[in-house]
Design a protein that fits this description.
Elements (H helix, E strand, L loop, with lengths): L6 H13 L6 H8 L3 E10 L5 E10 L7 E7 L5 H17 L5 E7 L8 H17 L8 E5 L5 H14 L26 H14 L2 H7 L9 E5 L3 H12 L4 E7 L2 E4 L6 H11 L9 E3 L12 E4 L18 E3 L8 H10 L2 E3 L1 H4 L2 H15 L8 H19 L5 H8 L4 H26 L6 H20 L4
Parallel strand pairs: 3-4, 3-5, 6-7, 6-10, 10-11, 11-12
Antiparallel strand pairs: 1-2, 2-4, 7-8, 8-9
Helix pairs in contact: 1-3, 1-16, 3-16, 4-5, 6-8, 6-12, 6-15, 12-15, 15-16
The structure holds nicotinamide-adenine-dinucleotide (NAD).
The site of nicotinamide-adenine-dinucleotide has 20 residues, from helix 8 and strand 7.
Length: about 475
């Protein structure tokens, strides 16, 4: 981010760069860019030692072209109004691209969660929720938070409990927040959703001859080399799916203490266990150490997956990147200066704004589950299995041959919740990738895939605003 611009202004700058390639009325574009509602809160919480701390917190609803609004809540000392506004705006565009029918929202509480006891965090979270209820800033049809930096299932359970306590009898109350534990209305398949979405998105890009011809790589993922930065939730699952489902070779994994390289491929689970046991990713059996972790980004490879932090590929190192495809699993890993270098070098950068949308997509599935009050697959699993068994039996009878047991089991299988969630996520990521690439190819003046993603988002939100008209 440039020092001259705030984060929210920077998002606006990227928006303007893409808006040039659309034909919308400037007034509509202005309305899309603006943040519709900002709630700034100050509330007191009594800490364990008896002293009172005044907590600063925010909830921003960037766009109401769809309801409810959706976006995570972060706990961080860096939280400020501008940051929450920028992140809420990005949620509007992200939801539009992956056809999740929500407006963008975001929340933040300016605290360091590591400096508070669990009881203090519970009080901070519950009071925050009650402030949102008081101002009508939360509800399954109004605004639905989710986890973000510094928050997880535990905080989401406190939020749903506070909400349903204050709004007893609201039949859809559990849809007021997503990212809940499964026992509290959460959905299976959410943990791996972002990494799996990254895999589906990059796989789709690699299946497109018009893209692969341009960068001089053969079609498909099979045998491609992958470098992953960050072995956290997103990096671990991305590596796992590229290896297991894509038959790729994950030749290097970088963590903050260093990176490891093995040209024959690494197994992320073994590396994870090694790091857990020894406290470091380095000295993994059979791998070469790279003590300066950043150098892993510059290794020759087909696909680079930054899945750790923002701004890791910038004007300083972009020129040394040798990957042909960059899949932005983290939020904001490449700077605008890096984008310019990629355009010159013909590197395809698959943008964060949609590539890491697996989490919000599966949050949408969780919300739908909460509104329907039934687990995915419960109604059809047995019916499907019984029907499949009849078809198989008939086939075997008519052909006089028996199917191999493993094959029989696979065909018989009726969908569980996790199967349906993964399948919905695959459909979402494949469609989003195709829409963006189609938009990019229709207008060769659009400089990169990131701008094409913005154009797709702007067109969808603008269509919504223009069809709805202006009240009164
Ligand atoms: P995480 O905390 O689980 O993992 C991050 C990992 O990166 C950690 O293992 C950390 O040690 C490592 N790391 C830190 N500094 C590093 C460095 N300098 N070099 C190499 N590795 C480093 O976080 P996560 O949930 O996996 O999120 C990663 C990124 O993906 C973030 O940008 C996040 O905003 C984004 N994201 C996450 C989700 C999600 O569902 N978790 C969804 C969308 C976007």
């Amino acid at each position: 981010m440039s020092a001259e611009y705030s984060f929210f202004e920077s998002v606006g700058t990227s928006f303007d760069k893409a808006a040039k390639f659309t034909k919308w009325d400037p007034g509509i574009l202005e309305q899309i860019k603006a943040c519709n509602s900002v709630l700034r809160m100050r509330y007191p919480v009594k800490m364990d030692d008896g002293h009172i701390e005044v907590i600063e917190a925010y909830r921003v609803q960037h766009s109401h072209h769809k309801a409810p609004c959706k976006g995570g809540i972060r706990f961080s000392t860096e939280v400020n109004q501008d940051e929450v506004m920028a992140l809420a705006a990005l949620m509007t565009y992200k939801c539009a691209i992956v056809n999740v029918p929500f407006g963008g929202g975001k929340g933040g509480i300016k605290i360091d969660p590591r400096k508070h006891s669990a009881y203090e965090l519970e009080k901070i979270t519950r009071r925050y929720t009650s402030e949102l209820v008081k101002k009508n800033f939360i509800g399954p049809g109004i605004d639905v938070p989710a986890p973000d930096y510094g928050t997880g299932e535990r905080e989401m359970a406190w939020i749903v409990d506070t909400y349903t306590t204050l709004k007893p009898g609201e039949i859809d109350g559990y849809g007021c927040v997503t990212g809940k534990p499964i026992s509290q209305g959460g959905v299976r398949g959410r943990k791996e959703a972002t990494g799996l979405g990254v895999f589906f998105g990059v796989r789709e890009v690699c299946s497109m001859p018009e893209v692969m011809d341009k960068i001089g790589l053969p079609l498909g993922l099979e045998g491609k080399t992958v470098v992953v930065q960050g072995l956290g939730n997103v990096g671990y699952h991305s590596a796992k799916f590229f290896r297991e489902k894509g038959n790729c070779k994950v030749i290097a994994i970088a963590e903050y203490e260093g990176a490891i390289y093995n040209e024959n491929g690494l197994n992320e689970e073994e590396v994870f266990q090694h790091r857990k046991a020894t406290g470091s990713i380095l000295n993994f059996p059979g791998a070469t150490n790279i003590t300066n972790s950043k150098e892993a980004l510059e290794l020759p490879c087909d696909i680079l997956i930054p899945a750790a932090l923002e701004n890791v590929i910038n004007g300083e190192n972009a020129d040394r990147i040798k990957a042909k495809i960059i899949g932005e699993a983290a939020n904001g890993p490449c700077t605008p200066e890096a984008d310019e270098v990629f355009a010159k070098k013909g590197i395809v950068c698959v943008p964060d704004m949609y590539l890491n949308a697996g989490g919000v997509t599966v949050s949408y599935f969780e919300w739908l589950k909460n509104l329907s009050h039934v687990r995915y697959g419960r109604m059809e699993k047995r019916f499907t299995e019984n029907m499949n068994a009849r078809i198989l039996n008939q086939m075997e009878e008519l052909s006089g041959k028996n199917m191999a047991e493993a094959e029989r089991k696979a065909i018989m299988h009726g969908p569980d919740e996790v199967d349906l969630v993964h399948s919905g996520l695959e459909e979402t990521m494949v469609q989003a990738t195709r829409e963006i690439i189609e938009c990019w190819h229709k207008n060769p003046e659009i400089p990169d895939m990131r701008s094409a993603a913005y154009v797709v988002a702007i067109n969808k939100v603008a269509t919504s605003y223009s069809e709805l008209g202006i009240f009164p």
